[in-house]
Amino acid sequence: MLCAVLMSDALFRKVIWRHFRAYRRDFPWRRTKDPYHILVSEVMLQQTQTQRVIQKYGEFLTRFPNFKTLAHARLSQVFRVWQGMGYNRRALALKRLAVIVVRDYKGRLPQDLEQLVALPGVGNATAGAICAFAFNKPVPFIETNIRRVYIHFFFPQKRKVQDADILKLVARTIDMRYPREWFWALMDYGAMLAVRSSQNPNRRSLHYRKQTPFMGSRRQLRGKILKLFIIEQKLSAKTLAHRFQKPIGELKPILKALATEGFIRQKAEDFTLV
């Protein structure tokens, strides 16, 4: 059993670095400093386990090796490669982001944190990760494994720990000389805690939410509908109701949401993939 104890910043860094030297993980996105490749990996890693990302990462980069090819690709092509990853909004955001980078930044991902956060699908955590991993900048950010580490070491008894309090500690303890490797080290320690801790420290986060079951959910039905659009391009609500044996009234809110988000557009009685 791993015991959490309050410790000095110096000792904390020593523990994290020691674990990293002994047990550092290897991923394809850690073998590159290409901002586009790192962006793709970070967007893929949002709410998706690393093993699933490994399976799609290489395929995606082979099909869309840079911002220009992704920006000029048809959305249906992007979705076909993305299939199996889930959370298709991320693929749509990546496509839109590529268009903006090609149009406004001459095909080069900006290094400024505020400019990164303003891009589609890039929040504070993803922007901070890009700054660290692509540009080696000591920008504090929090993701699941990092949150787990700081709660474990600095809030061993506290419940409802706020990210704002954790972020202060992240900023205070960053290794300013090696930010890229430091954040890798934090993530690797957090991944270890997820396996070896008797209780998940993230359950004590104020922001912890237990994921609802996927099977039989509206999210699952939405994914099936979008997958059918990728295959057939054009479908009506009546056709979808027949295919899925669902009342049209249940499908209409999903179709409306897909249209609002930019996945599909309506023409008369039919909907077509954008």
UniProtKB/TrEMBL annotation:
Its cofactor is [4Fe-4S] cluster. This is Adenine DNA glycosylase. Keywords: DNA damage, DNA repair, Glycosidase, Hydrolase, Iron, Iron-sulfur, Metal-binding. Residues 44-192 form the HhH-GPD domain. One of its GO terms (molecular function) is 8-oxo-7,8-dihydroguanine DNA N-glycosylase activity. It comes from Candidatus Terrybacteria bacterium RIFCSPHIGHO2_01_FULL_48_17. Pfam families: HHH, HhH-GPD. Its EC number is 3.2.2.31. It catalyses: Hydrolyzes free adenine bases from 7,8-dihydro-8-oxoguanine:adenine mismatched double-stranded DNA, leaving an apurinic site. It is an enzyme of class 3 (hydrolase). It comes from the Bacteria. InterPro entries: DNA_glycosylase, Endonuclease-III-like_CS2, HhH-GPD_domain, HhH_base_excis_C, HhH_motif, MIG/MutY. One of its GO terms (biological process) is mismatch repair. Belongs to the Nth/MutY family. The keyword DNA repair applies. The lineage of its organism: Bacteria, Candidatus Terryibacteriota.
